């Protein structure tokens, strides 16, 4: 109404209290208070509003004349401003507020019912989830108990395996010590055999000489008609017949005595040789893989030496010889020999890994022995220029070992399960050309013999350890 009056012709000025709110699209609480104040103080403005209001229509919108719209009734009271209109408006406002509070309470009650129902549903779902969680927790507890039992069993098995490994390590060390002692005894027996064979050859030579002289005596006796001639069958010196016959008889008897003595010595030498061969056979009885051949005896008592068909003999014009000869006066079992072989141009040193490490550092674990040996071989390579290649039994440690590596310039190989380092070393000898000197390091008699047959030089484990220590 205030905005319409300002646009009317002639224009009707709006109340002062409404002027700040004429541009508002929606009336706020302060604007409504300003409108109520304008209706109270400006009678002309109130009359214009009353004249423009259709109260009957307002009552019909609320449902008829019997129940008029409370808002329209309050508006009539405000516009008429009869006696006590404020109290009536206040009472109507109280009723409306009570009704609004009741409606709000009902609405809140319904909302609470919905919330209670939702919470009840959530509670049931939570209880179901809790029961499922308890069931899962119980199952997890059973699985944990089973896993703890399995872990306990695995720990017991690990302890048993550790004890078994320690026992096997001790047994291996004892076996290595026994093997070394056996090899020492075998070396002594071979020396006895060599001396016995030399003595046998000497006695055989004496026997051949005695037999030759005996044949000469027999021939001379037959030629002289049954009498004993001199040792050479030559003409007797100028003397009487009886004196010559007596001298010849004396010399024949002396020659027969020497023959009998030579035969006795040969018999003793043959008995000594038989005893030495028996000792050697007993020493190697535990190693059927490499039997020791017993030499045959010549009818004279001398051993028959068969030539090897596998190893070339450069003295007889055979194949090329790989193993170099040591300088004159240098013993093959000395540290100087080991150093000489390692310093040869292009020298290859093949090492039986555990055979050397178990002799050098038996108290260390196997992995520590390997590291110690590889470090020492790296120093040897740097000092002499040789090419070390060490072979370990891969099955000794089990799983996870690489087949081949080259730490610090040393070529390291591990054998596959079922293949021993001895066989791998012997097969490696043939992989190098003949013009490269190859030295095999092992105290194993089979490896030493096989290396010699393949034309390679050999060193014992103790020689290499002495060379590495120097």
Summary of the model, kept short:
With 470 residues, this protein is mainly α. It has helices at 2-7, 29-41, 43-52, 55-61, 70-80, 85-223, 241-283, 335-342, 353-360, 366-384, 421-429, 445-453, 461-469, and strands spanning 296-297, 303-304, 348-352, 387-392, 404-405, 411-414, 438-441, 457-459.
Helix fraction bin = 55-70%
Give the neighbour order of strands across the main sheet: 5-6-4-3-7-8
- Topology, number of strands: 8
- Please give the largest β-sheet: 6 strands, mixed
Report how far the terminal alpha carbons are from each other: 123 Å
- Rg is 63 Å
Count of individual helical segments:
13
Q: In one word, what is the shape? A: rod-shaped
Structural class: mainly alpha
The amount of beta strand, in percent, is 5-15%
Low-confidence stretches: 56-63, 227-238, 285-320
The averaged pLDDT comes out at 77
Order of helices and strands: HHHHHHHEEHEHHEEEHEHEH
């Amino acid at each position: 109404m205030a905005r319409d009056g300002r646009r009317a012709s002639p224009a009707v000025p709006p109340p002062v209290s409404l002027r700040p709110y004429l541009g508002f699209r929606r009336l706020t609480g302060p604007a409504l208070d300003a409108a109520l104040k304008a209706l109270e103080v400006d009678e002309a403005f109130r009359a214009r509003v009353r004249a423009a209001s259709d109260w009957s229509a307002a009552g019909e919108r609320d449902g008829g004349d019997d129940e008029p719209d409370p808002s329209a009734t309050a508006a009539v009271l405000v516009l008429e401003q009869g006696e006590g209109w404020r109290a009536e408006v206040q009472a109507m406002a109280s009723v409306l507020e009570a009704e609004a509070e009741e409606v709000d309470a009902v609405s809140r009650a319904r909302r609470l019912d919905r919330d209670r129902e939702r919470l009840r549903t959530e509670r049931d779902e939570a209880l179901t989830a809790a029961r499922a969680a308890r069931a899962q927790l119980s199952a997890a507890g059973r699985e944990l108990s089973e896993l703890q039992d399995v872990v306990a069993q695995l720990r017991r098995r690990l302890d048993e395996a550790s004890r078994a490994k320690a026992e096997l390590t001790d047994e291996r060390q004892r076996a290595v010590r026994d093997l070394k002692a056996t090899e020492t005894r075998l070396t002594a027996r071979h020396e006895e055999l060599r001396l016995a064979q030399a003595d046998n050859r000497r006695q055989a030579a004496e026997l051949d000489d005695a037999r030759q002289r005996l044949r000469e005596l027999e021939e001379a006796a037959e030629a002289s008609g049954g009498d004993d001639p001199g040792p050479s069958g030559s003409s007797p010196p100028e003397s009487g017949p009886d004196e010559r016959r007596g001298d010849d008889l004396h010399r024949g008897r002396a020659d027969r005595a020497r023959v009998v003595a030579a035969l006795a010595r040969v018999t003793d030498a043959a008995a000594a040789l038989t005893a030495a061969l028996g000792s050697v056979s007993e020493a190697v009885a535990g190693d059927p893989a490499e039997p020791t051949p017993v030499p045959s005896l010549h009818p004279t008592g001398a051993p028959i030496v068969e030539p090897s068909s596998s190893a070339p003999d450069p003295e007889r014009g055979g194949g090329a010889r790989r193993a170099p000869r040591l300088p004159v006066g240098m013993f093959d079992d000395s540290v100087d020999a080991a150093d000489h072989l390692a310093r040869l141009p292009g020298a290859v040193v093949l090492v039986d890994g555990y055979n050397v490490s178990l002799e050098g550092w038996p108290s260390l674990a196997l992995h520590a022995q390997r590291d110690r040996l590889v470090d020492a071989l790296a120093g040897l390579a740097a000092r002499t220029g040789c090419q070390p290649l060490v072979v370990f039994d891969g099955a000794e440690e089990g799983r996870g070992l690489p087949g081949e590596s080259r730490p610090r310039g040393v070529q390291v190989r591990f054998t596959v399960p079922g293949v021993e380092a001895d066989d791998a070393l012997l097969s490696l000898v043939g992989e190098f050309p003949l013009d490269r000197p190859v030295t095999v390091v092992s105290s194993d008699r089979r490896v030493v013999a096989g290396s010699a047959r393949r034309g390679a030089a050999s060193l014992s484990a103790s020689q290499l350890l002495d060379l590495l220590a120097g």
